[in-house]
Design goal:
CATH topology of the largest domain: Growth Hormone, Chain: A
Number of domains: 3
Helix content: over 70%
Shape: globular
Largest sheet: 2 strands, antiparallel
Order of helices and strands: HHHEHHHHHEHHHHHHHHHH
InterPro entries: MFS (IPR011701), MFS_trans_sf (IPR036259), MFSD1 (IPR052187)
Number of helices: 18
CATH superfamily of the largest domain: MFS general substrate transporter like domains
Structural class: mainly alpha
CATH class of the largest domain: Mainly Alpha
Radius of gyration: 23 Å
Number of strands: 2
Protein name: Lysosomal dipeptide transporter MFSD1
Main location: membrane
Strand content: under 5%
Family: Belongs to the major facilitator superfamily.
Membrane topology: Multi-pass membrane protein
Length: 425
């Protein structure tokens, strides 16, 4: 124990008082070096946010057993970088199959990295801070989406002018330059791995091992409330991302918008979520009542889709409502996993949630395309309304089940604080 204390002091930069080499010298930035201090955890939060900056729209399967934190996160980031390079090379040499392979590699690292990001969040920010942290992470992801939508076209034009030609070569060079964000993600993963291991040694606890191992055998232990959270997640996002993917043409055909105006209104969901996600996260932190906030978000989304389907009101109203509700749901829904799952199963739970979300999005996107081609946009909107309605039903069931079992999903902030204090005593 004394050896561990000595190692912890060394990592913090402490020295015995008799050490003449540093006697009287102030410690440099002590708060930033102490993993138990808020300033240090804010640095970790910043790194976590940038960790997922380059991986905002990917899909990937998860191995049956996988180490998440530490060097596992570094491996995922490396896969993201390698996948992006292969993708860009496919454009340069005009090989579409190579571009597909690059996206496959990118997806394996990208989605697993998102699971690691969630697990890091729960490991470093437990309790009342968690909703705000998830909001900040979502905000950074949406900023990444917005930067991608607005910057890559401009970058392509500039490279086209420089090379004096358009086509696959210009596309490949543009993608290669865009891959700089993947390198940023890798750097953040390396620093996070070091800080996580350092905190584990200094604090003498399993700081770096929260949900570190993903085991599919843990699924049999998942509770009914957790399965309902999964169902809410799949059904809700099925009515958001596929709609945005098809939204531009929808606004052109139904409302007569120009392509530029249609793109602007279609991206307003991401634009709103970037600043509002942290605000809603702080709101949920201060009030608790996660299930109620999820209920409000899903109900508002249902109203938004009904407005788009059955009225010719200015669609800016419905899309702004969709942006607000989307931001609120993410802040209130994703932290609930940590409230119902033991720490050693968090990696499995978040990984499974991420996987079935992507599986649902893949299936719904195919169905949405088939409905659009055969029946048109009205029936497509009815389909999205059905998805949101199923999500709303799942939220009501979650509220009833949680209440019947005396669960903590809908605790107020005060109740959560009392629960935390009772566990530490």
């Amino acid at each position: 124990m004394e050896e561990e204390d000595e190692e912890a002091r060394a990592l913090l930069g402490d020295r015995p008082e008799g050490d003449s080499a540093v006697r009287g010298a102030p410690r440099a930035l002590p708060a930033l070096c102490d993993p138990s201090h808020l300033a240090h955890r804010l640095v970790v939060l910043l790194l976590m946010c940038f960790l997922g900056f380059a991986t905002f729209a990917m899909t990937a399967p998860l191995p049956s057993r996988l180490r998440l934190n530490g060097w596992g996160t570094v491996i995922f980031s490396c896969l993201v970088c390698v996948g992006q390079v292969i993708f860009a090379l496919g454009g340069i040499v005009n090989a579409f199959w190579l571009m597909e392979f690059g996206r496959f590699v990118f997806g394996i690292g990208g989605e697993s990295l998102a699971v690691a990001q969630n697990t890091y969040a729960v490991s470093w920010f437990k309790g009342k801070e968690l909703n705000l942290v998830f909001g900040l992470q979502l905000s950074m992801a949406r900023i990444g989406s917005t930067v991608n939508m607005n910057l890559m076209g401009w970058l392509y034009t500039k490279i086209e002018t420089s090379l004096g030609t358009a086509g696959h070569l210009t596309l490949g060079v543009t993608l290669m330059i865009g891959g700089v964000t993947c390198i940023l993600s890798l750097i953040c993963a390396l620093v996070l791995a070091y800080l996580d291991r350092r905190a584990e040694k200094i604090l003498h606890k399993e700081q770096g091992k929260t949900g570190e191992v993903i085991k599919l055998t843990d699924i049999k232990d998942f509770s009914l409330p957790l399965w309902l959270v999964f169902l809410i997640c799949v059904c809700y996002y099925a009515a958001v991302f596929p709609f945005i993917g098809l939204g531009k043409v929808f606004f052109i055909e139904k409302f007569g918008f120009s392509p530029q105006s249609a793109s602007a209104i279609n991206s307003i969901v991401y634009v709103i979520s970037a600043p509002m996600s942290p605000i809603f996260g702080l709101l949920v932190d201060k009030t608790g009542k996660n299930v109620i906030w999820v209920l409000c978000a899903v109900a508002t989304t249902l109203v938004s889709h009904m407005m788009l389907a059955f009225t010719f009101w200015n669609p800016w109203i419905a899309m702004c409502l969709l942006g607000l509700s989307y931001s609120l749901l993410a802040c209130a829904l994703w932290p609930m996993v940590a409230f119902v799952v033991p720490e050693h199963q968090l990696g499995t739970a978040y990984g499974f949630m991420q996987s079935i979300q992507n599986l649902g999005l893949a299936i719904i996107s195919i169905l949405a395309g088939m409905i659009l081609d055969s029946r048109g946009y009205l029936l497509l909107e009815v389909f999205f309304i059905a998805c949101v309605s199923l999500s709303l039903l799942a939220v009501v069931c979650l509220y009833l089940v949680n209440r019947a079992r005396g669960g903590n999903l809908n605790y107020s902030a005060k109740q959560r604080e009392e629960l935390k204090l009772s566990h530490t005593e």
